[in-house]
Write a structure and sequence with these properties.
Number of helices: 8
Shape: globular
Order of helices and strands: HHEEEEHHHEEHEEHEHEEE
Number of strands: 12
Distance between the termini: 64 Å
Radius of gyration: 23 Å
Number of domains: 2
Length: 307
């Protein structure tokens, strides 16, 4: 009896990787625990290497309490992290890899204007801190979406370089702009939205093919910029009017904006980029494999502004 019990509670080391692969293929369905054989084993994981698809996975049995942590290579159809809360770990783990990749492929940016724009090294110095919207008082012109930079000079240079490459117009919609609406869990009392600006995956893939450069589509959303933004309490929201004006004109101007010494915002439309497509997904619609998944900011990553 003792020998049987010891064998029963001590699964072979080879059992866990096999169970882990089954668990990641059907994350919402518990699998059999190697220790107690109950169908109560669940998995949570996050990618730690973009290129080898290596992931750190944690297995937990709800019946016997058995736990196991190991590294496995994810299959192609498996999302990079599960559940959604693991995205914070995923983002931290791959940030350095994404930054290094951006440096390596920047040599190809001459023919990839969207990549030049979204990976420009001056983003960190410019400090994108807010987004504002403007529209014509009589609706005679398309609306403007302004990215507010704390440091005007580098922010203007980012757009100036885009102007040189695109001549004011993103004709082929190579810069993908999304405004993700809906509060994050735990912050229902403070509505906000996430803005994600990244190269369009299809357009970038076309450029990469022309340059004979292999680019993994899964990392394209990481080659962009994102921010979590909150409307000013007590002020009328600006986003609904922007959406209304965009729906009318089918066009908007993406432009830099800076804060003047008196606190007012100054838009610079002469450096703007004309765009005809913008995405408005809701947070509840975003999945781990969505192009906007990287823009989701989880509660542990958010510092709420003062009310």
């Amino acid at each position: 009896m003792n020998d049987f019990r010891e064998s029963f509670l001590s699964p072979s080391a080879t059992d866990w990787p096999e169970v882990a692969l089954r668990a990641v293929q059907s994350p919402s369905t518990p699998v059999e625990c190697p220790a107690c054989h109950a169908q109560t084993l669940s998995a949570a994981w996050n990618l730690v290497n973009l290129f080898s698809r290596e992931a750190a996975i944690d297995l937990v049995c709800a019946s016997c309490g058995a736990t196991q942590s190991l590294a496995i290579a994810l299959l192609g159809e498996v999302p990079d992290f599960f559940p959604l809360e693991r995205m914070a770990v995923f983002a931290t783990a791959v940030k350095e890899q994404a930054d290094a990749l951006a440096e390596r492929i920047r040599q190809h940016c001459g023919t990839m204007p969207a990549l030049t724009f979204t990976t420009h090294p001056l983003w960190a110095e410019a400090r994108w801190s807010a987004t504002t919207f403007r529209w014509h008082p009589t609706s005679d012109a398309p609306p403007i979406m302004g990215l507010v930079f704390d440091d005007a000079t580098p922010g203007e240079e980012i757009f100036r370089e885009a102007k040189r490459q695109m001549n004011h117009s993103d004709r082929f919609e190579e810069i993908r702009v999304s405004i993700i609406q809906g509060p994050v869990p735990g912050q229902e009392h403070r509505p906000g939205y996430s803005v994600h600006i990244a190269p369009d995956p299809d357009a970038l893939a076309m450029h990469a093919t022309a340059e004979d450069f292999v680019l993994d589509a899964r990392i394209v959303p990481l080659l962009g910029q994102w921010n979590r933004l909150y409307p000013v309490p007590g002020m009328p929201p600006m986003l609904p009017k922007f959406k209304q004006e965009f729906a009318k004109h089918k066009e908007f101007l993406l432009a830099p904006a800076v804060r003047r010494q008196d606190g007012q915002l100054w838009l610079e439309p002469e450096l703007g980029i004309i765009k005809n497509i913008i995405h408005f997904p809701h947070l509840s619609e975003i999945t781990p494999n969505d192009p906007d998944a990287v823009a989701l900011i989880l509660p542990q990553l958010i510092t709420l502004p003062p009310t």
